[in-house]
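Q: Structure tokens for this one, please.
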Amino acid sequence: MSEQERAEEIRRVMVIAAHPDDPEFSCAGTVAKWAAMGREITYLLLTSGDKGSHDAAVRPGQIAGRREEEQRAAATVLGVKEVIYLNYPDGVLENTLELRRRLCLILRERQPDVVLTIDPWRHYQLHPDHRAAGQAALDAIFAAREWYIFPEQLLGERQPWRVKEAYLFWAQDPDHWEDVSETVNQRIAALKNHRSQVEQRLDTLEERVRQGLREAGKDHGLEYAEAFKRLKF
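A: Here is the predicted structure, written as tokens:
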């Protein structure tokens, strides 16, 4: 199958990440680009970011509610169809069998052709939620295609589901670059919706994003690019 034929088969995309704002800090230009192409994009966020504040007067439920709203607003800018929250506690996420089972069922139900998620093997990735989210997503992709892993999910007409590709963002060894020159402004606009996280650095945010995307694209003939490790299944 040619790359063109493979691209035409991609209709549904799921972004699996740990926190609200992870997609906007990693792959939002690609998300906006693919949404404009007519692909259906779903965000699946494992936590609601309830530890995302240094203000001791703000309770976790309050910051989680605010961050969920910010993420929905950012997703709207990009053309994302739906944002799903699993509401695991922020900061202590683990790749448990229960999480893998839950993600496997969602993949079998939603049937994404492509999953974008965090590279769990990046050297010195200190955030445990990021490692756990990426590993759980990839473990669930493997499980979802197997008849005898979580077979209790295969009720009625439901069958295993084979994801075609995974794109790992924040990758240790990227081998694929998406041209986001036409959607860089959408990525920046979406990111600015996460005011609880970026308000103190709004004056430098846009240039920092542009500089990172320019750096990613400079050796590949692209003005702005997002880098991924691309896995084909």
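A few notes: The mean pLDDT is 95. The helical segments are 3-8, 28-36, 60-78, 97-110, 128-144, 184-191, 195-198, 202-217.
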